[in-house]
Amino acid sequence: MISPASIATQDSNAQDSTVQTLDSQTDSQALDSQADSQTSIAPVGLGWSGKAAIAVCAKIVGERIDTKAIERAKEPKIEQAGIIATNPLIIKAGTTGCAVILRYGVIVTFDLSLAEEKALLTTLQPYIREPISQDISENLPLTFRPKAKERLENGTLYLQACSAERLQVVAEALGKSVVLDYYETEVSSLFTKIKPFATAIQGKTRKPPKEEELLELIGGTLLIQQKMVGIVEVGEKPDPIWDYPELDRLYRRLEDEYELKERLIALERKLALVSTSVETSLSILQRDSSHRVEWYITILIVIEIAIALYEIWTK
Questions:
Q1: How far apart are CA 281 and CA 277, in angstroms?
Q2: 34 part of a folded domain
Q3: Which spans are transmembrane here (predicted)?
Q4: Is 302 contained in some domain?
Q5: Domain residues for 211?
Q6: 88: cis peptide before it, omega within 30°?
């Protein structure tokens, strides 16, 4: 028979166990909440709350930017401004602005004046590889509406929150658009260069293309393809999307607005046409060269036969 004292003891132990379980769940939830707040880094202290809209500018400055070196650098201006987030890198800049530094040579600035942008470029100059002098940029006004649908409408981008991951996604879309602009211009110049080769194939010019020029064009085409596919990864999702899947819809809208996939496909087709044209010209040039060698050999044989006949005749 179980005594009332033992029943009371069991009830007390059960209550203590329940309290401990609830306490542990509460602590776990608190830790999860703390982890989420640490993961979702927001650009605090930029002073955008009182502004109706801020200016966003994406500009290509070089073939590549050494973002890892910027993170490790002891540059006073960068250290004083502070790093907001990484992958891709966001640093504070100017009075109330920031900049996303993309490793494939693009800098996307938020709320910077022309003077502040110029000062930022001067600071980052040592980390830019193979600088590009062409002024190719993409500009966009950005405004924050907590309850609005995140979209690009009438040339203005609407975001629900001012978070680092959203700025990174916007910067990736604008950066890829600027890179496509740059290489579309480069490919157009390649078409201008291969026109004389096509004319030479038709026989409308006496001056055939040089093999060195053809090889240079092939190398330029391969470099563009390698950067578009291997470095910029225009057809791939940005890294922040994998950590924040809810931002996939925002990126898809920007991707459709700037026609990133369509432009990439068109660029790949143009590059394929350039490669085919140059390879055809090179094969024809090599064929003509081999024909000349055959003629040289034939002439040498004829000369040798003539010398032999002359020697026989003189004897």
A1: 6
A2: no
A3: 295-313
A4: no
A5: 175-288
A6: yes
> CA 62, CA 139: separation in Å to the nearest integer?
18
Indicate if 63 and 150 belong to the same structural domain: yes
List pLDDT tens digits, range 275-302: 777 777 767 666 656 656 666 777 778 7
pLDDT digits (tens, 9 = 90+) for 8-53: 444 445 444 443 443 444 444 443 433 333 333 344 456 686 788 8
Nearest to 233 by CA among 270, 280, 179, 286: 179
279: buried, middle or exposed (CB in 10 Å: 19+, 13-18, 0-12)? Answer: middle
Residue 68 lies in a domain: yes
- The residue with tokens 């898809």 is 252
Domain boundary residue among 132, 160, 188? Answer: 160
Place of tokens 């608190």: 30
Q: What pTM was computed for the model? A: 0.70
| Residue after which a domain boundary falls, among 130, 160, 190 | 160
Tokens 């740059």 belong to 182
Tokens of 307: 């010398």
Specify the number of domains making up the chain.
2
Beta-bridge partner residues of 83: 91
Cα separation, 129 vs 171, whole angstroms: 20
Pair (202, 252) in one structural domain: yes
CATH of the domain at 80: 3.30.310
DSSP-based three-state secondary structure for 199: helix
Burial class (CB in 10 A: 0-12, 13-18, 19+), 145: exposed
